Amino acid sequence: MSDYGEPIHETWLQSDGMLPRRFLRPVLEFTRIEAAGGILLLIAAIIAIIWANSPAFESYFTLFNTELDIRMGPIHLSESLKDIINDGLMAIFFFVVGLEIKRELVVGELNSFKKASLPAMAALGGMIIPALIYLAFVIPTGDPEAIRGWGIPMATDIAFSVGVVALLGSRVSVGAKLFLLALAIVDDIGAIAVIAVFYTEDLNFAYLAMAAVLIVVGFFGRRAGITSMVFYVPLAIVIWYGFLESGVHATIAGVVLGLLTPVAAKYSDEQFRQKAVQVLDRWDQDYASPHSAERLDQDALELAAVARESVSPLDRLEHMLHPWSSFVIVPIFALANAGVRFIGQEASFAEQLTSPILMGVAVGLMVGKPIGIFVATWIGLKLKLGVLPPRTTMATIFGLGALAGIGFTVSLFVSELAFRHELFVNEAKLGIFIGSGFAGIIGALILWLIKTPSDDASKDADQLLPSHDAT
Predict the structure, then answer these.
(1) Half-sphere exposure of 407 (CA within 13 A, CB side)
(2) Percent of the chain with pLDDT over 90
């Protein structure tokens, strides 16, 4: 028997038990999509770099700097294509992040202090140490704008880090994979807080108040039982616009809306079974009726509605939006933001490679992340805040910490917010590429070479459960 009271057998992961059905299978599906999305993200970034340094480089910058004028009723936007991507499309990405944070906080690896404390401690160390390393490189320059980039090496890219872990297969236990996912989720929470607090422009309290009132309207609409997207989608767009005009970065609206999305379905499993039986019993009666076609259609629609409301809004929205986020939005973001031009800048490529900003970002990611996560986890264990997952050693934690140094998506995002000087943005992005690349290689090598406790790796995916003490 497992710590959750479920029998462990070869097909436990595919069983109808509460834990695999409500948590593990959605999490594993999430990681599979993230891993596949990471490949497209890498391809898009490579295309952007080649395009930005090709003879046709002007077309790259002209395209993404194209000004667009968009009007939707009272909403008027006059932004570049790049800004629309960063402020608009990325709000959907952050909405999906908010959904996953909500799942982890309610039913996942962060739903209790005992389970969340160790990965949270590790994530905190993995944010503080990279920021301090960055500041150690940049403070001697005395440039206030350069110092603003301290948030860049704090971020972990879930898509890339999970993608590397997926390539390693059974060499990394499921418990260790869940630890990395929980750590990355906490890291996302930290990054969101940093963006909201430290990279917010001058506040317009009128727009912020409008967004807050509409959030309350959405909350009470949910409590009143309103489930139609016709109500929530326009509301979400206006809330996003309120954040955009308020000075708080618009993507924070996506996170807030994700956190407000219900995890619980309208009907429980037992209620769904009872209602389905009632509809099917009526179906049998209507089928025998001489004028049954219209009533059968009504029965089918009712059964479909019952089935839909037996799936939580969070699961429905994540199932619908997550592939779009991973396979469309994030690659488009990478295409628009990864195009760093190595030549024709104020400083030569060699000078950029030795700049304090680049060094601070690169070293923060590839050195600060694994050291910060390793040391913080060790301290957490000494303080008895939790225990390591099954088949996980401190060497595994160091390897996972190195993979967490793959910053990329959110790091690129923060670099655009931190700097106004184009040269600083380019240096930061080069640091992200170098630091993330080395972090991924180092992390993969460590996890590939270390001996994982227990040789029963082939059964890991189906049999291993995180205990209540794990992570």
Answers:
(1) 36
(2) 38
Q: What is the reported pTM?
A: 0.78
- How many residues belong to the chain? 471
User: Does residue 150 register a pLDDT over 50?
Assistant: yes
C-alpha–C-alpha distance, residues 333 and 172, integer Å: 30
Cα dist. 152→132, 180, 269, 332 in Å?
11, 20, 44, 20
Q: Give the integer Cα–Cα distance in Å for 301 and 287.
A: 15
Residue the block writes with tokens 């839909």: 308
Question: Rounded distance, CA 258 to CA 88, Å?
Answer: 15
DSSP 8-state secondary structure symbol assigned to residue 260: H
- The closest alpha carbon to 183, from 117, 245, 135, belongs to 117
C-alpha to C-alpha distance for 161 and 265, rounded to whole angstroms: 31
pLDDT digits (tens, 9 = 90+) for 210-232: 999 999 999 898 888 787 888 99
Query: How far apart are the C-alpha atoms of 252 and 257, rounded to whole Å?
Result: 9
- Whether pLDDT at 171 is above 90: no
- Among residues 371, 350, 337, 357, the alpha carbon closest in space to that of 439 is found at 371
Neighbours of 326 (CB within 10 A): 25
Instruction: Provide DSSP, 394-430.
Output: HHHHHHHHHHTT--HHHHHHHHHHH--SHHHHHHHHH
What is the per-residue burial (b if ≥16 Cβ within 10 Å, else e) of 274-285? Answer: ebbeebeebbee
Q: 61 burial class (0-12, 13-18, 19+ CB within 10 angstroms)?
A: middle
